[in-house]
Amino acid sequence: MALRIVIGDVTIGIHGQDFSYIFSVGSGGMESLYKDGKEWLYRSPRPAFWRAVTDNDRGCGFAFRSAVWSAADRFVRCSRVEARMDGQEIAIPLAPANNKYTGKETCDRFEIIYTYETPTVPVTEVTVTYTVETDGRIHVQADYCGKQGLPELPVFGMRFLMPTAAERYTYEGLSGETYPDRMAGGIPGVYEVQGLPVTPYMVPQDCGMHMQTKWVEIVRKTSLDNTDRGERSSRLKITAEEGKHFAFSCLPYTAQELENAMHHEELPPARRTVVSILGAVRGVGGINSWGADVEDAYHISGEQDITYGFWIE
Fold first, then answer.
1. Beta partners for 282?
2. What are phi and psi for residue 98, nearest 5 degrees?
3. Cα–Cα distance measured from residue 165 to residue 220, given in angstroms and rounded to the nearest whole number
4. 24 close to 30: Cβ distance less than 8 angstroms
5. How confident is the model over 106-158, as pLDDT tens digits?
6. What is the pLDDT of residues 150-186, one digit of tens each?
7. What strand order describes the sheet that includes 273-281?
8. Across the strands, what pairs with 113?
9. Does residue 140 contact residue 309 with C-beta atoms inside 8 Å?
10. Three-state secondary structure call for residue 271
């Protein structure tokens, strides 16, 4: 069944069987992802550059050297939008050219490309391409453009903020919490995690990373819809491209919320689900307690391009 396309003044709606999506030109991102009976977005997804500072990040001075990525994580801005239906370009800005559309347009493939620029010196760009297929699957491609002179990155990927806290998630990958330099003990398999656990380090910091993941499925019962009694669990699955994998974390807090707390009792109530789907993750170090830098193989250069993709199903 073909996709039905509704083109408004600042948004483009995509409708199909049991799904509907809204992509915004005004907010510079995907604004709504309605699937399996629930809305899955609380804010538009954005490129992720930062993680909550770890003990070793502080100890080796990495947080200071790469602090610009904290600002980029919060203040990256959309500078350009391109959209196509079956390869035919849609004029941006949408209005007043959208007056020619009837609301009954259809296509077999819809593609929208957001270009973001970072508040760094030098400025660099990230392009995020969403491609919607007729069965409702969305392919997400994220491309980071490396620039000479930019510091190393903590992470690179996409971050999704969901409206309510998930009841559990299941994934296929390595057991437990793993990082690029902490994978030797991870056992491949399928694992279910109840709730959204935060590792009880003395000082809240980045945690809950899962490397070499083939897919993750998030399960929610609650929503912000007052007519939804939460009687049925809904699922959203994110899958790596064929033959590839990604890293992910699924937490109740953003990096900024974790960093604002010196102790766990200072963390706010868990209200949302923060899912980070990452194509690159820096190691955590810990070679001589928390002072030596991460080994060279586990750094992420800000001067080199990074490309990865995944499917939302």
1. none
2. -70, -10
3. 7
4. yes
5. 999 999 999 999 999 999 999 999 999 999 999 999 999 999 999 999 999 99
6. 999 999 999 999 999 999 999 999 999 999 999 999 9
7. 46-48, 155-162, 273-281, 246-251, 210-213
8. 82, 129
9. yes
10. coil
Considering only CA atoms, which of 248, 236, 228 is closest in space to residue 166? Answer: 236
Amino acid identity of 292? A
Q: Using the Cα atoms of residue 278, residue 189, residue 35 and residue 112 in order, give the sign of their dihedral.
A: positive
CA 142, CA 87: separation in Å to the nearest integer? 19
Question: What whole-number distance in Å separates Cα of residue 96 and Cα of residue 100?
Answer: 9
Q: What is the mean pLDDT of residues 222-241?
A: 89
Please give the single-letter amino acid code of residue 130: Y
Rounded CA gap, 311 and 140, in Å? 6
**Bridge-partner residues for 77, per DSSP?**
117
Q: What's the pLDDT at 93? A: 84
d(CA 152, CA 169): 31
Q: Which of 239, 244, 247, 240 is closest to 174 using CA atoms? A: 247
Q: Report whether 118 contacts 72 (CB < 8 A).
A: yes
DSSP string across 145-183? ---TTPPPPSEEEEEEEESS--SEEEEEEESSS-BTTB-
SS3 290: coil
Q: Which of helix, strand or coil describes residue 28?
A: coil
